[in-house]
# Entry
Amino acid sequence: MQLYFRPFACSLAARIALEEAGLDAEYILVDEDGRLPDGRDFREVSPMGYVPAIETVSGFTLTEGPAILTYIAELAPEGALSFTGFSEAHYRMLAWLNFTGTELHKSVFSPLLGKKAGPEERAAALARVALPFDLLSRHLEGREFLEDRFTVADAYLLAVLNWCESAGVAIADWPALLAYRTRLRARPSVARAMAQEWPLLKAA
# Structure
């Protein structure tokens, strides 16, 4: 299994999930120009040019972060990263994956961190952060995780919340979210994943 990643991009969530599940993978760094170590264009693997992408043990290539995280969760030992299918908790987890992808990743952070957004688009993205952050803060009050235990949805949300400072989002204005991020960063699988990618980020 091969995971294509960029340091501290949303692909960090997949690395965390693999660490948490104890699954082996080869990690392939995609450079800023979209080149792979073997010289290929990354779009040969992922047509949109986005990380993560994963080449599975059975030989197919999967893209789109929530799909990859769901795949890893289903490979993990039972209950390690997800819930039993057809349970309410399972579908709530899928909802959190999609919430993070649409309401935060694409709607807020992509414009703030991308190079193409102008001042008006950036201001609009910053204005959109309050509603989803307020919702998450209320939900996480008194909770350790999004659901009853750590899942791939937490891995994805943590990866996105790591971008707050770079994006100019004042996470300290939402203490419950800041505390959640701090707790998750101390989790062994998260700490290992971040430690593996931090030198690559600094060198970029």
